User: Fold this.
Amino acid sequence: MPEKNVFPGSVQIDEIWRWVEGLPASRGHAASLAEVRKRAARIERIDAQRDPANYASPALKGRVTFRHKDHGHFKVGNGEYEFKINFSGRSHNSVYVYIDSGLKAVGLITASSYDPSSVSAFLTPARTAEPIVGQSVVCMNAHGALCVLTIDEVQPEVNAQTYVSPHVTFSYEVLTAD
Assistant:
């Protein structure tokens, strides 16, 4: 009876499809098509936010605002000049910069003015550097290349009626001349 949208075997095909997809056998417990679409849209939005391309800049110099609670690291540069930088909040005006995402060393640049060719002197074997806004950190990757980060802004998490995700804004320059 095509006029009633009933076809031979359609009930069995629907039952098999529900079984394969792990859906409830009874349509009474099934989500409506509108609800399924809402769920799919939520999943797609989160997948898009987790896309690693959102947390990378192949440029060797730039300025980035990174919501460090949303992703494990931010990647700057590329190839032998690639740096995966891991941050977490420390205080209202400082962050931790970790070596955990593949950096070999980090160090806080304590001099107010410095020669980029000598920043390797600031490297330490420590797991973290703890810069405040305005300070710089030197990072060394597994290839021995160096990158200087300057912390421009730190925003701690605001867990109130209007939520603000914790983030850090930093400028960076990958040093290509040794």
About this structure: The chain has two domains: 2-50, 52-175. The CA atoms of residues 107 and 122 lie 5 Å apart. Residues 52-175 form one domain.
